[in-house]
Amino acid sequence: MQRKLARLFLVIFLMQITQLSELVRLPLLVQHYIQHKHLHPETTICGFFKMHYLDNTVDADYAQDIQLPFKTAHLHFNVIQLSMPPAVLTLRSLVSPAIAEKIAGRQRMLPNASLSSIFQPPKIS
């Protein structure tokens, strides 16, 4: 059950952030090609794609043409920004210089986090 739910969420996620939602419109493409083939039997698939995707022509079935997959661009902007906080905060602009100096002095006295780690580089003596 969890795998099915995970796959469902993956599909929903990919449909939202990519152009995979355009694949849902593929039956419209096939149906529109069959209509063109019925009206003009000499139409090849390459000619069909050239007419609908490369040529910018507005014809009688333009309302159907614009619904074809990958015909219009849907812009998705997903911005993820990660930023690291500064190593030492500057408090001089927020507090008086005497208090800022006391805080800076205390920060120098704090133990380094890497000293408590068991994984340390070899020491050369």
* Approximate strand percentage: under 5%
- State mean pLDDT (0 to 100 scale): 76
Helix content class: 40-55%
How much is the radius of gyration in Å? 31 Å
The arrangement of helices and strands along the chain is HHHHH
State the total count of DSSP E strands: 0
Class computed from helices, strands and strand pairing: mainly alpha
* Distance, first to last CA: 58 Å
Biggest pleated sheet: none
Total of helices: 5
**Poorly predicted runs of 5 or more residues:** none
Instruction: Label the overall shape.
Output: elongated
Structure description:
The protein is mainly α. It has 5 helices and no strands. The protein is elongated, with a radius of gyration of 31 Å. The mean pLDDT is 76.
Question: Any key phrases for this structure?
Answer:
single chain; 125 residues; mainly alpha; 0% strand
Secondary structure: elements and pairs:
Layout: H1 2-17, H2 26-39, H3 45-54, H4 62-65, H5 97-109
Write a brief caption for the model.
By secondary structure, this protein is an all-alpha fold.
